Amino acid sequence: QVQLQQSGAELVKPGTSVKLSCKASGYTFTSNHMNWIKQTTGQGLEWIGIINPGSGGTSYNVKFKGKATLTVDKSSSTAFMQLSSLTPEDSAVYYCAPGAFAYWGQGTLVTVSS
Amino acid sequence: DVVLTQTPPTLSATIGQSVSISCRSSQSLLHSNGNTYLHWLLQRPGQSPQLLIYLVSRLESGVPNRFSGSGSGTDFTLKISGVEAEDLGVYYCVQGTHAPWTFGGGTKLELK
């Protein structure tokens, strides 16, 4: 069955970067674009961007351009999202979800605090 | 960006009651290819969202048929025909017609 295993919770300092991972199994990794979504209590669910694992092509929500960078490693069927210049407003749960949201990872909690 | 407005924000129901959630879009969600990319998700407490309905009215595999979706253009509805305890949580609509994809604000279904 389809599984998406995301990396563990992160506590990071303002101004630094963090790289989250999402390891996919149970389907052909390159057959579905991978979405990344941010969830906060205040802003709800926000779509960050999408990556084509086959080509590496990306498309970002303008709001997250310069904040998020999406990459993949096809050899390990893993998608990555790097978040840079972190501020407390980046504190959230981040999900990966391939295709049309039929499957979701368990989420990674990122806390930005000094 | 497309704004999805869900109503009501909170819904109180008894077990067995039928309920409906509305999702209204600021733009038509009919894509030039003829599809309407409006989907419904349920997020149970402490869990990741799960897909219930895709393309307005298509039931995701494994989802009980008490869930149904309808609508077109800018107005969409999710109906639960006979709420069960496992249905409690927050329901979201999401659109994938116009980039960036956007989500509704959510409707929390709770027990009366």
Number of DSSP-assigned strands of chain B = 11
Our count of helices of chain B gives 0
Largest sheet report of chain B? 7 strands, mixed
Order of helices and strands of chain A: EEEEEEEEEE
Count the DSSP helices of chain A: 0
Shape of chain A: globular
Largest sheet of chain A: 6 strands, mixed
Structure description:
The complex is a heterodimer of chains A (114) and B (112). Chain A starts with a strand and ends with a strand. By secondary structure, chain A is mainly beta. Chain A contains no helices and ten strands. Chain A is 0% helix and 50% strand. The mean pLDDT of chain A is 96. In chain B, strands 2, 4, 5, 6, 9, 10 and 11 form a seven-stranded mixed beta sheet that branches. A four-stranded antiparallel beta sheet of chain B has the order 1-3-8-7, with no helix packed on it. The mean pLDDT of chain B is 97. With 112 residues, chain B is mainly β. Classes of the chains: A mainly beta (114), B mainly beta (112). Chains A and B meet through strand 5 of A and strand 5 and strand 10 of B.
State the gist of this model.
The complex is a heterodimer of chains A (114) and B (112). Chain A has 114 residues and is mainly beta.
Labels describing this entry:
heterodimer, A: 114 residues, six-stranded mixed beta sheet, B: seven-stranded mixed beta sheet, globular
List the helices and strands and how they pair.
The complex is a heterodimer of chains A (114) and B (112).
Chain A: E1 3-6, E2 10-12, E3 18-25, E4 34-40, E5 44-51, E6 58-60, E7 68-73, E8 78-83, E9 92-98, E10 108-112
Parallel strand pairs in A: 2-10
Antiparallel strand pairs in A: 1-3, 3-8, 4-5, 4-9, 5-6, 7-8, 9-10
Chain B: E1 4-7, E2 10-13, E3 18-25, E4 38-43, E5 50-54, E6 58-59, E7 67-72, E8 75-81, E9 89-95, E10 102-103, E11 107-111
